[in-house]
Design brief:
By secondary structure, the chain is α+β, with helices and mostly antiparallel strands. The protein has 3 helices and 9 strands, in the order ααβββββαββββ. The chain folds into 2 domains: about 35 residues; about 100 residues, Immunoglobulin-like. Helix content is about 25%, strand content about 40%. β6 and β7 form a beta hairpin.
């Protein structure tokens, strides 16, 4: 038989949340709301422009690729300001080796894309990270992992 005090304690603990949930309370007081409304409004993360979007059009890295390869990347502003193509940056591998100048030396640049033909990559697994910013300075980066086979 369960002692009576245990049954009463369990009954009270089950009822306690119901009484707390029924009592209204203010998360923010009217005074706090007034002070906040009067304060200078500094833009928060949701008020800032959206970062650019980076999309790899070619090659299809969902499967192994073969040399030589054409790289085609599309940059779009999304809902933010225009992309600043002067901020394109490319790094290679886990060490983040800067390959930007080599890529841009051989790539055709457009206001919203770049493409490079006849690119030769070593056999094996690779990781390339591309980044770009918009004219408001909001930066985006995207990492692409792929394998090169014979």
């Amino acid at each position: 038989m369960i002692p009576r005090f245990v049954v009463m304690a369990l009954s009270l603990s089950l009822l306690a949340p119901l009484s707390v949930a029924q009592t209204q309370w203010n998360l923010v007081t009217p005074e706090e709301d007034g002070r906040d409304s009067a304060a200078p409004h500094v833009p928060g993360p949701s008020d800032l422009p959206a970062p650019p979007v980076i999309e790899l059009l070619r090659p299809d890295i969902s499967k192994p690729i073969r040399n030589p390869v054409t790289i085609e990347v599309q940059f779009s502003s999304g809902s933010g300001p225009p992309v600043d193509m002067g901020t394109v940056n490319a790094t290679y591998g886990w060490l983040g080796i800067n390959i930007t100048s080599r890529l841009l030396e051989h790539a055709a640049m457009r206001p919203d894309s770049l493409s490079a033909e006849n690119v030769n990559l070593p056999l094996g697994d690779h990781k390339v990270t591309l980044s770009v910013a918009n004219t408001a300075g909001k930066k985006a980066s995207r990492t692409f992992q792929f394998s090169v086979v014979r």
